[in-house]
Write a structure and sequence with these properties.
26 residues, little secondary structure
């Protein structure tokens, strides 16, 4: 899973990279 926003508080919502609900706990 590619998380480019693994530091942003918005990553816990909908990640535009993976198109699925991505949490900050990767």
């Amino acid at each position: 899973m590619v998380s480019g926003e693994v530091g942003s508080p918005k990553v816990s919502t909908m990640s535009p990279y993976t198109r699925q609900p991505c949490v900050r706990s990767v």
